[in-house]
Amino acid sequence: MLLFPASHLRPQPQPKTWMSAGFSLLELLTVICLVGILSSISLGWYGGNQKNVIERVTHQRNAQEIVSLGVYATMGGADFVVPGDKLATAAKLIGGVTGRQGMWKDKLFSLSNMRPTDLPGALPFVKFESDLLLYDPEGLQP
Q1: What CA–CA distance (Å, rounded) separates 85 from 131?
Q2: Which residues contact 116 (CB under 8 A, 6 or more apart)?
Q3: Nearest partner of 109 among 57, 137, 60, 67, judged by Cα
Q4: With contact defined as beta carbons under 8 Å apart, do 59 and 121 qualify?
Q5: How confident is the model at residue 25 (pLDDT cuts 50, 70, 90)?
Q6: Domain ranges of the chain
Q7: How far apart are CA 13 and CA 20, in angstroms?
Q8: β-strands 126-129, 108-109: how paired?
């Protein structure tokens, strides 16, 4: 007394369409987790590398300021050079020296934006030649 054949009572497998194809929630969460871990590792490495570069450029810029002010102070006849001692010479420039001749007479030469704690990083980029401060971009001077 069946009106329908038995084959119609069993669910028939439907052919897969583009709507039914996809990833499970677990697969998506796994991929998101892996991408997050890899990006945090790469950003940490990249950020650390950038910090070193920024620090080096800051030290080079401070050395350029020391040398530049040293040249102007020398032209103004200021007495600030401690022969053979870059640290003492730069410390005098931070404290300020006064010109004695020409248009720089009685003018104050001072590295007011630099602290004594900035000197150890900047001084490798400064060298002495004939009691004149020169900039060394390679920073090979002790």
Answers
A1: 10
A2: 91, 94
A3: 67
A4: yes
A5: confident
A6: 28-135
A7: 13
A8: unpaired
